[in-house]
Amino acid sequence: MTKEANDIFASCSFDSLGLDSSLCQQLRERMSFQVPTLVQSQAIPFILSGRHVLVNAATGTGKTIAYLAPIIHHLQRYNPRIERSDGTFALVLVPTRELCMQVYEILQKLLHRFHWIVPGYIMGGENRSKEKARLRKGISILVATPGRLLDHLKNTSSFLRTNLRWLIFDEADRILELGFGKEIEEILDLLGSRQSMSACKEKVMSRFSEFQRQNLLLSATLNEKVNCLAHISLENPVTVGLEEKKVFIEQQTTLSKQFRSPGSDVDDESEQPDRHLNSLNGDYSLPTQLVQRYVKVPCGSRLVVLISILKDLFEREASQKIVVFFSTCDGVDFHYSLLRDFKWPSKLQPELVQKQMFVRCRTFRLHGNMDHEDRRTTFQGFKAEKSALLFCTDVAARGLDFPKVRCIIQYDSPGESTEYVHRVGRTARLGERGDSLLFLQPVEMDYLQDLQKHGVLLNEYLLLKILNSFPLYDQKHHVNKFVSVETHPWVLFLQKALESFILAESGLKKLAKDAFCSWVRAYAAHRGDLKRIFMVKKLHLGHVARSFGLKEQPSLVGRSFQVHTKKRKKDQKQKGMTKKRRVAGKT
Ligand SMILES: Nc1ncnc2c1ncn2[C@@H]1O[C@H](COP(=O)(O)OP(=O)(O)OP(=O)(O)O)[C@@H](O)[C@H]1O
């Protein structure tokens, strides 16, 4: 075994963990999993024993099998066999629809030889009545997003869950960050799964009632809210993969604290929950083989640099998969359309007639504003491709297991450092190679220190070397060693080409304007400590416009932005007045 493999895989077999032999055979033959990963070898025995477990292990280390295998082990052993009419035994809660599909697909494979155990899913965007019909027939292991689950718990009387034995929160912190805190509390109440309720729960007698409820929480990163959830849902839990962080869980005494929706702590600088957490959370465990870099790019050159890097990457290695993260849905739409339509050589070189796509590869997009079917097609399409580019928001940051992603580019900053960890976690999975590249503007460089606090160290990407490698008018240009990115001939040339192209395409121009407005808004919405690094007032909006290929000054760029700016100014004025009044009151 290589060193990387040693860090990932255990030196024991699935059978030695106590799993049923036909399930082990299924893992080996159908899934091609020869040995368990380290996290599986640690978690499976505890989960098999019925303990409540909190699993905190790096991205791509096999957490999904760690909880599914023990559940299937138990379910396939019931004698007589379980039937659909027994209802739901295990409920897996996940934050996004894509993750819901992914876990369901893994279940389908795992259950291949246990046909009497029925997997199923319910999630936002799907047809409710069809889901109702499926629930009525009975689903043994149900994967769900929280909102839709709550809906069915309240409104689908035929949804039988009296035999529920397992409740799993996969990507627990993300479920809570997305503002599902209230739903989770209601779900716990409706299922009688709160710690305090398990003793006094009314028991419905059946042949399964001898079994205790078992709750499991899994995530590669933790936060205060998960901690809170762990407290109310886990009874005497075992913690896997976070010995040093156990202290943190024990130190939290605010059990009665209610979960807050993300909206409620935006702008709440006084509390700064993350500062408190950071000091306790310690280092993140990232895949050791992941090569992490940052690239320092002046705002106005961001677009040119992004598409130049993509071009370079695909020219070096035509067959590879790359994921680029943006902060907004509009940003994804604009960049996706631009790359799809922008041809090269550009109009600036009319003598060269044979035009091609600027970046030669298939491009996909994924964000929460897309319709359900489009999301599903993208998810499946990008998964199946050998060479492709995915532009997405953080909807793809959690848990998604796209095979063979070689590089992650964070074009817009991830904000919270936990989000950085999950985004880069889409590559370098299970010991494979992987690169990540974080875009930062010169004024944002302090973000590196923020990451460093968690033991995340990045090296600088040699941008000028890449820029120098592009030929102008098909001839290598010789660039002065000390030229800056903004004044680099290639950057100037490509920027001009992009601006004329966008100006001529009215649809694209509209997308660029919308993306510009959304980007500024998202930038202004950075929370707590991050506001110190990502300061809107330090932005040159003209340069921001350039990064969307727009020549116009921001004040000309769309009404919605002006309305937003006016509103912000008004709010600020009002805040200022309140402050003044308060100060006046003091004196
Ligand atoms: N024992 C194993 N042997 C080989 N491959 C495995 C094994 N267990 C899981 N895998 C594969 O490893 C990959 C990562 O697994 P999984 O998605 O469960 O990771 P994860 O820890 O949940 O990641 P994330 O934190 O990003 O959600 C998947 O492609 C899965 O099929």
Automatic annotation (TrEMBL):
Q: What residue spans carry the region label Disordered?
A: 256-281, 561-587
- Catalysed reactions listed for this entry: ATP + H2O = ADP + phosphate + H(+)
Query: Where does motif Q motif map?
Result: 12-41
User: What molecular functions are annotated in GO for this chain?
Assistant: ATP binding; ATP hydrolysis activity; RNA binding; RNA helicase activity
Read off the InterPro entries from this record: DEAD/DEAH_box_helicase_dom, Helicase_ATP-bd, Helicase_C-like, P-loop_NTPase, RNA-helicase_DEAD-box_CS, RNA_helicase_DEAD_Q_motif, SPB4-like_CTE
Q: Name one GO biological process term.
A: ribosome biogenesis
Q: Does the keyword Repressor apply?
A: no
Q: Provide an example Pfam family for this protein.
A: Helicase_C
Output the SMART domains linked to this UniProt entry.
DEXDc, DUF4217, HELICc
Keywords of the record, alphabetical order, are: ATP-binding, Helicase, Hydrolase, Nucleotide-binding, RNA-binding
- What does this chain do? RNA helicase.
The entry sums up its family as follows: Belongs to the DEAD box helicase family.
Domain comment as written in the entry:
The Q motif is unique to and characteristic of the DEAD box family of RNA helicases and controls ATP binding and hydrolysis.
Instruction: Quote the protein name from its UniProt record.
Output: ATP-dependent RNA helicase
Q: Record the organism.
A: Nelumbo nucifera
Which gene holds the coding sequence for this protein?
LOC104600490
